[in-house]
What does this fold into?
Amino acid sequence: MCQEVFVTVHRKLPEFEGRSKLRTWLYGICLRVASDYRRRAYVRRERAVADPLHGVSEPRGNQPDVRAELRGTLIQLLDALDEDKRAVLVLYEIEGLSMKEVAEVVDCPLQTAYSRLHAARRRIAEVMAQEDSAQPGDDSEGSSE
It folds into this structure.
């Protein structure tokens, strides 16, 4: 996917008119390439490598490594959002763009970007609440003898 972004940038660079910041123009390309990737009907298979953990730091002490679990939870939460809301949330909360830059990247009015961000946050809170209510509770609820 990264290579597709570089190829697209190389191909479209002569068309860049400078009406927006280069950063937002690049994020727009990344957003569209990622969106196209998600819509593809096929799934690319991962390739096995000789040393899959090369360069990955080990967890310190006796603490379990929860990064994979957290990453999975984040992906699950983002999958609960439609594409427009997910793009705004990721660009603002994870990539750190300003809302003005987010609106430029997703090509919508600033107020619409704010609405999508608030709706995304609300949807994530709903999904998290559903997950919490689906978790088995502690024994204190129905343990009257």
Confidence is low (pLDDT under 50) at residues 138-145. The chain is about 60% helix and 0% strand. The chain has one domain: 2-42+68-134.
